[in-house]
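At2g35280-like TPR domain-containing protein: structure, please.
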Amino acid sequence: MLKKKNRSSSSSTITTIQSLPKDLLVEIVASVASYSSNDLFNVKKSCKDLLDAGKNNYVYRRISLDKFSFIPWRRSSNTKKLALFLKHCKENQNTENLYREGLRKCLENGNTEEGLKKLDMAAKEGHKEAKYVYGMILLCSSSMEDEK
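Here you go.
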């Protein structure tokens, strides 16, 4: 038989997560968020320290918006929560959000300059699709100017 060791109730131990610096926790949570918003929500549910790290602006800047529709087609019971979440992403200049807004503005009449600015910002932050679209727009627009 195995004997249990007696632990005194007065001694407290620090868990592994609690011993990590807050900046490192934020970076870990942001890395998870950049791959999957679902994983981010699950990580935030796992413990208070990760929940706090998940509220950091840097996480909102890096979170993946792949699971969210470019245009919300239907209303759901979580519409207000989703709108608040997307607002936080926009306020923190999330690269996917910048790309989507830039693309939308470029396709609207008269907002090309504002759209290009947002695409440029997203491209400079490393967003692959934004780099491609921004480059193609610049390439095509310079070709059209050369023809004139």
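Notes: Residues 95-148 form one domain.
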